[in-house]
């Protein structure tokens, strides 16, 4: 893989064969796809497509010509020819202040406009997930965010000793719940109300949930309708799933307030993302079982939820699982049969450097061997969080300059595991740090995940180390390549450490794949399947040219570079 400040040649020790297979290639022109030509091509094709204007035109002529034929009483092929000629000349005849040709052209234009409007509507319904301004993806993102927030709050309450685990976690049963338990007419409605009241327990603690309560008080739907929705979801996905989802105020609010059309859109998206939601809750460490256990007596004896827990709020283990289409296929990420382990920071071992020659670009002031990511005394580049040029106490985890977006690992078929955004990511946001085991420049033990590392402000060819994420790393190692990538690597300084961070070069939508550009060199002996127009594969086949990317720096997003 290749960050902007990277090279593939990785110093003089790297031979050409190794170069070609090494993920980080030096001196390789990087290719950034231009604005989607495919859409232009598509439009062009459309206009001349057999089902498009050309054929319609001839149909239009034909039917007019048939009318003329009928009027003239002739129907033999010869007649047709004769009358076709007549028709052709009639095209220039002015009728009602326009020629037949102009009329045809106008009708055609209207037809085309109508068709493209319909297509645009269909696309915006499915792509943007919007209907009448309803942003279903935005709402889904809010549900993920709520679940994450509740899990984080549980954990901090548990850490401060405030939150006993299990039954007492949400407090004692409220009067309403006792009432419901005693007089419940049906399991579904009782559970639905109880799930709604989940947020009552927390409303005294946060104004956010109080707002939600107020919204729920203004509920547009009669209770029965909301209960039916809860019931259907529980029937379809199980009570466990519903109990998990009910920790999101946005979800409960939507159940109660959305009209049927919008609810159908939301529940379709929930169905589509059911596996993702389940994995997400698990990765967040959300304690979801208490509610079900607390309400156990409301369920038929066949459903005994006491067996589930009470679970303790767990430390989150984000990006632990790979989301797949079927829940039964969810798995841990592995490489060459070994589990891939998540780590928060680079791992440096002096022993890894012992036998490697000092790289030519190793800074003269830096002892060799030593951890090349540590800032000694002074850095030519300021910390991107506090602007200090000397080692500062900023940490990556708590720095406000880092977005730490909600993302998930997901199976992308032939391209393997990839990363999917679970929230909108603005252009310029720093998403995370590429971490792994630090090896000397030119390390040839990892042809898939190794990233050449050069210091901030230095040329990308000046590689001083290789970060191998094959075994130890974080979610950033799973970003697949795209020739029209959404992010780039960038070397920066933060908290007394040199780091290679991932920066969004454009806005990334909810559920969009988070891709990065590995550099053309990575694909010299591999096949890129990003499928975007202007892909490096087209270049290899000689179908397109390539462009040198513009020099890009953090100042474009407000940082000094
Ligand atoms: C750094 S890893 C990315 C994560 C990887 N997909 C996985 O499952 O671990 C790079 C590897 O992912 C696959 N890959 C990434 N982007 C690809 C693309 N555009 N086309 C084909 N394969 C791709 C290739 O196997 C590549 O060697």
UniProtKB/TrEMBL annotation:
PROSITE patterns: SET. Gene3D superfamilies: SET domain. The keyword Coiled coil applies. Keywords: Coiled coil. Residues 1-61 are annotated as: Disordered. InterPro entries: H3K9_HMTase_SUVAR3-9, SET_dom, SET_dom_sf. Residues 101-128 form a coiled coil. GO terms for molecular function: double-stranded DNA binding; histone methyltransferase activity. PANTHER family: HISTONE-LYSINE N-METHYLTRANSFERASE SETMAR. This is SET domain-containing protein. It comes from Imshaugia aleurites. The lineage of its organism: Eukaryota, Fungi, Dikarya, Ascomycota, Pezizomycotina.
